[in-house]
Amino acid sequence: MYAYLFPVFYLAQEAVTEETTEAFSIVALGNQLLNGISIVGILLLTGLGLAITFGVMRIINLAHGEFIMLGAYVTFLMQSTFGLDLLLTIPFSFLITAAIGALVEISIIRRLYGRPLETLLATWGLSIVLQGVIKLIFTAQLKYVKAPPYISGNLTLLRDAQGSAAIAISYYRLFIVFVAIALLALTGYLLYNTDLGRQVRAVTQNREMSKCLGINTSLVDMVTFAYGCGLAGIAGSVISSLKSVSPPMGQDYLVDAWMTVVTGGVDKLIGVLAGAFLIGEFNAGIAYLLNDPTARVIVLAAVIVLIRYKPEGLFTIQKRS
Amino acid sequence: MLVARGLLLFLICFPHPPHPLSLIPHPLKMSQSTIGIAKRSQLPTKLMTISGIIFIIMAILPLFLGSFQVSLLSKLLLFGALAVSLDLVWGFTGILSFAHGVFFTLGGYAMAYYLKLNLAAEGNTYGVDLPDFMVWNGLTELPWFIAPLKYFPLAAIAMVAVPAIFAYLIGWFIFRSKVSGVYITIITLAISSALTTFFISQQAYTGGTNGITDVSRLSIFGIDIPLNGLYWMILLFTTFVLVGSYWLTQSNFGLILRSIKENENRISYLGYDVASFKIFIWTLSAGIAGITGGLFVPLNRFISPVYLAVAFGTQVVIWVAIGGRGTLIGPVIAAILLGQIQNYAERVTQDWQLVVGILLLIVVLFIPDGLVGSVSKFFDKAKKQ
């Protein structure tokens, strides 16, 4: 009865009946949860840069996905021209995307501080421009990046009766999770235990006062934004070998990164980890019960509901306002 | 219940120019001069003459143009109306939405089902009264929620009602909270992204990535509408949208909308229910966008998730930004000009999007008022000196 009132629900049910032929087995669930872990790694990695540019600096950066894309292209370029290993290209993509980020901050973002809607529009324009420029240089063709051979293969957690792998996760996906957590720790250290980090936090809390105390606020802004973009670049490099590299690839990661950051809340850096974990496992769980597109739609809807009730994110300190 | 509430809201908010908003509490009984935002003007005779002449020229234009040009011009006029609908919420009320492509497409799908189902009824090679994409996806009968769209009146109602109700639900959900402007924009991005995924995944019902293609020509109650007829319908519709929006924004209702954009807190301190105003204009604008989409389908001959995607929503935002938010004619001019340029540019180059991005950046950084806004500001300055 309920199903006939709501077409969406009805359609979702249709999807369920299609999928029920697949047995609800422990093995499938285990695989899906591990798959969730690898999604968590990717979300964390792509969301981290945004946690800096949006979380710390409150810049609505819709070009974040394009910085990920730039990082991936740097890796592709290094690998195809110099034959460099993927891991060795990571510093280059950090430096190059950070440099482009600094340029963007000076030329665009700086003019629009305090005007969030304008910043949103400008960064959206920037994202279209970056896509267009990359398309001009590299054409729209899909590019492929080789993963390093020594992190290939699967880690098998459970074997079935025949001895073949039943529950397994590839080493490369574990590597992504590792890189993401390492970067999170590094960023946390920089932000909370160094002079630069203290200056960054001071500027975001009270710009005028920081200026009075002699902090070069515009330099701090530039460095912070460049660092956030550099992180996006690293994410792009690491992710590049998972799928193909193409100009519009950043768009998908943009939506995911935003969901992660918004869910986790931006008060504490650790919120990103929580957001990534929640969305990743939630997504994998629903995808196990229903199917992938439905899972994505439901997760997006859940994030919208979340923004409605807690725009400051789930994991924030209660403040009196 | 929901519809009744929407109707009530509509009645309450509906502006009556001589004594507007008599039902809405006026705590301070303020006159326009105390608000001091914009003066209310009667429709000036000069403006009326000029628009009349333009209308007549536009009306006789198809007699001198080829069918390709007429079809292009009709599309551009529709894009103009779509831009005006976004301008109502963004330029006047300050809600930036990337979801107008979604409302447009929802209306478009309603009309596309009507056209497709009528084509299927005329008899196709499959021997069933089913659209081809449903047959390919193994459906044997028409889903109950699509079947009524076979009849024109119902399809026409759905074309407005589906996007309007969808928008009403979203608006009811998000505007009655303390969510700020930027988050609302991000929500519209998420909606657009989610619906695109959803429409692509429900291939049996929506035609998937291809959408609904090869629809029939528009015929209403068995009468075929020729291209010129469609053009005149669209011209009338766009004119109606423009005139209606002008009247709406010049009324006290429009004045309140503009004050919401300027200072939302202040308006709510004065006792206005800001959320109701936002929901109303948001729903109205979605309804207009839906009709635009519905009229677009017979011209375009297909509708697909391409128009749901954020890229199309961005296109609409760019028309409004370049034309000038808060001016009504600006977005129309920008939509027509840019659409025309795009039409030629896309034959020469693959990189039209790059040009669009650069334009958007330039407009945001250097001409925030848009072209028409800057020009009128320039003249205002010149007049004062």
Please provide a written account of the structure:
The complex is a heterodimer of chains A (321) and B (385). Chain A has helices at residues 2-5, 7-19, 26-56, 64-82, 86-107, 116-138, 171-193, 195-205, 207-212, 217-239, 249-264, 270-289, 292-309, and strands spanning 154-159, 165-170. Chain A has 321 residues and is mainly alpha-helical. Chain A has one domain (23-159, 175-309): ABC transporter involved in vitamin B12 uptake, BtuC. A two-stranded antiparallel ribbon of chain A has the order 1-2. In chain A, a hairpin with a 5-residue loop joins β1 (154-159) and β2 (165-170). In chain A, α7 crosses α8 (195-205). Chain B is an all-alpha fold and 385 residues long. Chain B has a domain at 52-312. Chain B is built from 17 helices and two strands. Chain B has a two-stranded antiparallel ribbon. In chain B, α4 packs across α14, α5 packs across α13 and α14 (310-323) packs across α15 (329-348). The longest helix of chain B has 27 residues, at 274-300. Chain B is globular, with a radius of gyration of 21 Å. Mean pLDDT of chain B is 80; it is low at 15-40. The interface between A and B is large, with 44 and 45 residues.
